[in-house]
Structure formats: structure tokens, C-alpha cells
Amino acid sequence: MPVGFAINTVNCFGCKTCQLACENTHLQNPGVFMRRVREVNATEGPGTVFVSMACNHCDDPQCLKVCPVGAYTKLTDGTVVQDHEKCIGCKSCIMACPFHAPTFDESEGATYKCDGCLDRRSAGLLPQCVISCPGANIQFGNLDEVAQAYDGAESIHDTVATGPNLYVKHNENLDLDDFKHIDGRETVDVGSVDGWL
Predict the structure, then answer these.
(1) pTM of structure
(2) pLDDT tens digits, residue range 3-40?
(3) Cα gap 178→186, rounded to integer Å
């Protein structure tokens, strides 16, 4: 069973502690976020829903398929990792990802991506975003376990063709189809990139 994240958008109040903890842990340059808290206009009713997202470690990661230098690898546990030293900054991975999860560092001219804090997990620790969230609204681990983390959480696996490994507890103001446009851009599922390479 692959690994993945579960998030609870019902109790998230948009403090961005997870985003800043990730940035500080990985010593990113200011403004380079591998985890971002997105503000999503509610599908129905007034208000904004906060959604904390990073890489969803998809079953069919398009970043891996389009990278011209082979900087991406999928580990046996499903974690999608990037060899940053190989990155040439072409941004193909960002364009191919339906969630625009990889992030470009203008000052370095290269891209970064969440690996679920692989170094921390290798030491038996949880990812920094998980332990930093004051509301315990992020979980990471084996998908059968994280699926049970929040009562009523649903998988977004079938919302786009890449098969993202993310479970979401959401209220009536957020629909799973909203994840196709989660970062405010038209990130409509274009399916696999196999046909346009």
C-alpha cells in the first residue's frame, strides 16, 4: 500500500504553520513553498476554505514522465522524490502536475518538490508539516491508515488521471471536484501526458 497524506479542511483555519515549518525545515529561500495553504472560495455558501497541500505522491506522477533529465523517481513505498542536483529549471514538472505541486526557485533557477520529509521518516520521525499543525489537521503514512485519520475523509484519487494519494475531510462548502482547480488556476485534468510528449 502506498503512502500519502490526509488533511482535515473542516478544522483548518489557515494559520500556515505547516507551510512555514516546511520552508524552515528544508531551508528554502523566502517564498519557495513545497507545501502551500490555498484559499478556496466555497462551492456553495459564503466563505473560504483553507486547504494545505504539497505533493500528493500520485500513482501515475506526470512530473516523473515529463522531466527531460530524469530528476524524478518513484520509490517502492510510492513516495515521488526529486534529485534536485539534476534539475535544469525547465518547469515541465510544474506544468504537468495538475496541482502545480513542484515549486520554482527563481534565485536558483531550479524546482523543488515535497518528498514527505524522507530524511525525517528514515529516522523514524513524522514529516514536519504533520507535527507542526496546531490542529492536527495533517496526517501522513500508509494509505489504509491515513484513510481512517479523519471520520468521513474521502480520497481525491479519482478526481484527476494522475491518481493522487490524498484523503480529505471536507465540509459541504467544498466539493472534491474543486481539487481540479485547487490553486486558483485552470488546472483542469488533462489526463496523462503520454499523448502530448
Answers:
(1) 0.88
(2) 999 999 999 999 999 999 999 999 889 889 999 998 87
(3) 11
Cβ neighbours, 10 Å, residue 1? 12
Question: Does domain 3-59+114-183 match CATH 3.30.70.20?
Answer: yes
Separation of alpha carbons 104 and 109, rounded Å: 7
CA distance 85 to 182: 29
CA angle 155, 161, 165 (to 5 degrees): 35
For strand 103-105 and strand 110-112, is the pairing parallel, antiparallel, or unpaired?
Answer: antiparallel
Q: Are 139 and 127 in contact (CB under 8 A)?
A: no
d(CA 4, CA 166) in angstroms, rounded, equals 6
Q: In DSSP terms, which residues pair with 51 in a beta bridge?
A: 38
Amino acid identity, position 62? Q
Alpha-carbon dihedral sign for residues 186, 188, 192, 197: negative
Cell of 53: 497541500
**Cα–Cα distance for residue pair 161/190, rounded to 1 Å:** 8
User: Is the distance from CB of 144 to CB of 20 less than 8 angstroms?
Assistant: no
Residue 90, all three cell numbers = 525547465
Cell of 26: 528544508
